[in-house]
């Protein structure tokens, strides 16, 4: 009993050490890039007009913060992503489950989804403006569209890859449709669905950049567009870095959720 307990503790310690080391390694790459950026900027290898130095961009960010526009812009952009992603995720989950669990619905849903996902978001902007105007609706729907397709594809693939023997067991146990979904389909498709959620969040932030080109009067895209008009490259780069940082943060949240919900699948 003592040996088993010691082995369990040591395995837990090893897991904690591995997680800490992996976290340090993930933080190392951005630090290396930042260092290289600093060196090339200060040495003159990277001209200021092409890419401002990190210190210049930091000063630009402080300037925007002192103006009082940055926090409001982040709240507006974050709200757009939250609402758009929630709408797109709801559509993706429903369509993915229905298409993957019904042959008739698969033929009715999957071909149009495969066709629509190839449409460029920029090409849809004029059409969305005609349909929804230039307020918040086209921005929200562009983000929802960008987030829906990767999540749909992963949910669809995750359900289709479930072991057929598990479905035979469900038939043998006479499980209802809801019991089959709850005990077999949802747990079996969860790993792939979480991968799809990470991809969908990335596409949501990419879609936000596109959406905020549509007559934005507030938000991070509005700050970037104004800076472009005045040739403020430092503020443009700062805005893009903020997009990237928020994308990384949301990805980290889903990674943490993934570790928590899939801990049963690890030895």
Helical segment count: 10
Question: CATH H-level name of the largest domain... which superfamily?
Answer: MetI-like
Computed structural class = mainly alpha
CATH topology of the largest domain: MetI-like fold
Major sheet description: none
Q: How many domain units?
A: 2
Distance between the termini: 19 Å
Query: Can you tell me the overall shape?
Result: globular
Q: SSE string, helix = H, strand = E?
A: HHHHHHHHHH
The amount of helix comes to over 70%
Tell me how many strands there are: 0
The chain-level mean pLDDT equals: 80
Q: Cα-atom Rg, whole angstroms?
A: 23 Å
Roughly what fraction of the amino acids lie in strands? under 5%
Name given to the CATH architecture of the largest domain: Orthogonal Bundle
| Overall CATH class of the largest domain | Mainly Alpha
Low-confidence stretches: none
How is the secondary structure organized here?
Layout: H1 2-43, H2 54-67, H3 70-101, H4 103-116, H5 121-132, H6 136-160, H7 164-172, H8 177-211, H9 220-229, H10 233-261
Helix pairs in contact: 2-10, 3-4, 3-6, 3-8, 3-9, 5-6, 6-8, 8-10, 9-10
Describe the model.
Helix content is 83%, strand content 0%. It has two domains: 1-46; 49-265, MetI-like (MetI-like fold, Orthogonal Bundle). The chain starts with a helix and ends in a 6-residue tail after the last helix. The protein is globular and about 70 Å long. With 267 residues, the protein is mainly alpha-helical. The protein has helices spanning 2-43, 54-67, 70-101, 103-116, 121-132, 136-160, 164-172, 177-211, 220-229, 233-261. α3 (70-101) runs antiparallel to α8 (177-211), α5 (121-132) crosses α6 (136-160) and α6 (136-160) crosses α8 (177-211). One of its GO terms (biological process) is alkanesulfonate transmembrane transport.
